[in-house]
Amino acid sequence: METNEAIQTVLSAYSPIFELRAAEALGNAGGFSGAALWRVVTPAGVFALRRWPIGNPTPEQLREMHDVLEKVVMAGVNYVPLPVKSASGASYVSVESRLWQLEPWLPGKADFWQNPSSARLQAAMEGLARFHLTAATAGGIGGFGVSPVMQRRQRELQRMLGAWFEHVLLPCVPAGVWPEFDELAAELVARLRKLRHWLLRILAVRLPKVPLQPVIRDVWHDHVLFEGERLSAIVDFGCLGVDSVAVDVARLAGSLIGEDKKRWAEALRYYTAVRPLAPSERWLAAWGRVTETAGGGLVWLNRHYVKRIVWDRRPGILTRVRHFIQRLDQLAASGLVGRSAAELDSELHAA
Question: Is the pTM for the entire model greater than 0.85?
Answer without folding.
Answer: yes
